[in-house]
Amino acid sequence: MKLEGKRAVITGGAQGLGKGFAEHILESGGQVALLDVKVSLGLETANELNAKYGQGSAIFIQCDVTDKERFKRALQVAAQVLGSYDILVNNAGISSHEDFEVVLKINLSAVISGTMFAVEHMREDKGGRGGLIINISSAAGLMPAPMEPIYAASKFGVVGFSRSIGPAVESLGVKVLCLCPSFARTPLVTVHLENEDFRNFVESMGLMEVSEVVEAFATLVEDERNASVLSITPGKKEYRFQKRKANL
Ligand SMILES: NC(=O)c1ccc[n+]([C@@H]2O[C@H](COP(=O)([O-])OP(=O)(O)OC[C@H]3O[C@@H](n4cnc5c(N)ncnc54)[C@H](O)[C@@H]3O)[C@@H](O)[C@H]2O)c1
């Protein structure tokens, strides 16, 4: 998809990868709505982006994506303010929480509800204009992560859901894509670096800058292959699960 003139909603867009994806869309001539629980940071980010890319290019909407009604309402507000939206990036995520169900709610359930709401908005058979849904999973959605089993469960879920729902909504004019980054330098990772075991693990895998993940995001959006899963690790991006016959 060419991003010029396109309008995107990005959950967890106040910082980190979400902010990086927003900058890419704005640089390409689009507009963004950032949804996040962090109100002052979200407003600050939207102000920074408006100053850089022009007033009205970014809006912030306070939203906890685990609250389905508020998430639905936030998407409606984004559609009203932007005129519509063509892209939803389900990016909000956390790495760990004392209650494992919170991790599943943010990282998996909210990706599913966001996808369902966006499909309703975009579906061409009901007057929508089609669109792209991009779900942010992780390398921990492709291989075991013994240090973070609940996170891995949520991210494997995002991969399985995206590969399954993509073909199911294609006839409605909607495509679903999935991005699986390994470690990138964002607060999600850097706050845990004082833990020596974690730091050693991150060093063994390599730590990407946000820009490398954003570049993979740009490839995914440009290629627009429905139900595709793009893995990005330091210096290497690769489509996974390429379609093969009778590969059950
Ligand atoms: N940074 C990495 O190494 C890495 C690697 C693989 C996948 N990811 C995934 O990328 C996505 C973005 O991660 P990041 O590294 O930018 O993290 P981050 O912590 O820097 O940013 C995540 C954002 O999500 C927001 N958020 C959290 N819970 C929310 C909720 N309930 N409702 C709305 N917003 C909420 C946070 O406030 C924050 O602004 C996540 O899904 C994460 O799992 C990150």
TrEMBL record:
Coiled-coil regions, chain positions: none
EC main group: oxidoreductase
UniProt family annotation: Belongs to the short-chain dehydrogenases/reductases (SDR) family.
Signal peptide: none
Entry keyword annotation includes NAD: no
Gene3D superfamilies on file: NAD(P)-binding Rossmann-like Domain
Function comment: Catalyzes the NAD-dependent dehydrogenation (oxidation) of a broad array of hydroxylated polyunsaturated fatty acids (mainly eicosanoids and docosanoids, including prostaglandins, lipoxins and resolvins), yielding their corresponding keto (oxo) metabolites. Decreases the levels of the pro-proliferative prostaglandins such as prostaglandin E2 (whose activity is increased in cancer because of an increase in the expression of cyclooxygenase 2) and generates oxo-fatty acid products that can profoundly influence cell function by abrogating pro-inflammatory cytokine expression.
Keywords: Oxidoreductase
GO cellular component: cytoplasm
Entry's Gene Ontology molecular function annotations: 15-hydroxyicosatetraenoate dehydrogenase activity; 15-hydroxyprostaglandin dehydrogenase (NAD+) activity
Protein name: 15-hydroxyprostaglandin dehydrogenase [NAD(+)]
